[in-house]
Amino acid sequence: MKRGNQILGVVALLIGGASSAHAGFIGTQLSSEYFYPDSETSYAPAVEAPPQFFVGDGVETVVNVEGVTSIAVDVSDTSILFDFSTTLLNPRWGNVPFNGLIFNVVNDVPLNFSSFNISSNFEDFDPSRVSFSNSQVTVNWAGLAYDSNTMLLINFETDAADVPEPATMTLLGLGFVSAIAMRRRGTKVIKPRQGLNH
């Protein structure tokens, strides 16, 4: 009975210790902050509401820049959608080293992205304007023209091989523990009887 309790304890550890596979943004707490004229200087006339959020359904934050342009930011598990609205006619972002948003992971849940692609009607926006790591995403639209119809979608791709499924790992662990337990107990295989006809 003692050995049975030990096996149950190992199984409980395997099940309880299985961490959730996390590849994208869902469940991650992010901060968003507008930076101008470089990536080191927070821009006070831009207000993020809210400045920190957990990624879930719908728009996570709206950034109001100088009271004339708002940017609705909708983050899904593997993408960020920016929807621009402005009261200005033919506006253009100031052409400085950095003019845009920086998102940082707040709750130490690393992002697991391997690459990205963009889809946008933001003229001249190219991949060189986006950078990411396991804890940060930066988006720089310095010098670009925009209007109330401008949208930008960044789709991130994950390397699925890097993220083991917790259920799979738990099942493998259970199978391994069961095999060891059966071997140690000396479980006998019952052979079918031969020669009996009914």
How many extended strands? 11
Helix and strand element order: HEEEEEEEEEEEH
Global geometry: globular
* Alpha-beta content class: alpha+beta
Helix content: 10-25%
Tell me the span between the first and last alpha carbons: 40 Å
Write up what this structure looks like.
By secondary structure, the protein is α+β, with helices and mostly antiparallel strands. The protein has helices at 2-17, 166-185; strands at 29-35, 46-49, 52-54, 61-65, 69-75, 79-86, 100-105, 113-120, 130-132, 136-140, 151-158. The radius of gyration is 26 Å and the shape is globular. Helix 1 packs antiparallel against helix 2. It has two helices and eleven strands. The model is unreliable at 7-20 (pLDDT under 50). It has a domain at 29-159. Helices cover 18% and strands 32% of the residues.
Summarize the model shown.
The protein has helices spanning 2-17, 166-185; strands at residues 29-35, 46-49, 52-54, 61-65, 69-75, 79-86, 100-105, 113-120, 130-132, 136-140, 151-158. With 198 residues, it is an alpha+beta fold. Strands 2-4-5-6-11-8 form a six-stranded antiparallel beta sheet, with no helix packed on it.
How are the secondary structure elements laid out?
Blueprint: H1 2-17, E1 29-35, E2 46-49, E3 52-54, E4 61-65, E5 69-75, E6 79-86, E7 100-105, E8 113-120, E9 130-132, E10 136-140, E11 151-158, H2 166-185
Antiparallel strand pairs: 1-3, 1-7, 2-4, 4-5, 5-6, 6-11, 7-10, 8-11, 9-10
Helix pairs in contact: 1-2
What key attributes describe this structure?
11 strands; alpha+beta
